[in-house]
Amino acid sequence: MIINTELLKLRNWIDLNEIDKLGLSYNPHAIHILEKNLDKVIWWGLSYNPNAIHILEKNLDKVIWWGLSENPNTIRLIENNLSKIWWYNLSYNPNAVHLLEQNLDKVNWKALSLNPNAIHLLEQNLDKICWCNLSANSNAIHLLEQNLDKIYWSNLSLNPNAIHLLEQNLDKINWNGLSRNPSIFIYDYEKIKQVKKKINEEIINEVFSPERVMKYLKTHSNLENYMN
Prior knowledge:
Blueprint: H1 21-26, H2 31-36, H3 43-46, H4 53-57, H5 65-68, H6 75-79, H7 87-90, H8 97-101, H9 109-112, H10 119-123, H11 131-134, H12 141-145, H13 153-156, H14 163-167, H15 175-179, H16 189-207, H17 210-220, H18 223-227
């Protein structure tokens, strides 16, 4: 979702002077502040910032290319500066797969094993896969299912698409990792049903309150129209 950061402001209890400059340089919602405080920018943090492309384009001499190589929104800059690419970092970049395909000799396969858009390359090069990293790759479930003996269960416990494998192997779960996995939560349909029922009852009580019905009948005298 694209957010107009000009419409954002810091929460009133946050002191800008206490904000960490490096952390702010990474923050995609801080662009409007960073633009006005370039002297406070930490450029290697900003080089990772997906919303800072226009700032980076105007300050190429300050760009940290190993950070930029990993930034999914900087592909145009990367394509125009191939000699400055850090291929290890680029191998993580989900939007750089076309460049990686053209330069397989420069690919870092350990990093690529985490790249969700590089599954076809990994399928074609099974001997180069880092199974530790692949275990955390949300798009690699079919490969992991076919190679259960190669799974690193600590990383698989983090994988949001691996819940069915984890459920089948409870003794292998890393519970710290699983605790960070967003897929451990499911919709509570019974609770949703109860909430919906309560809302429906409130609507009905409001719409058909005696006061409202009487007011309608005084002006229209036709209850059937009111019901429709």
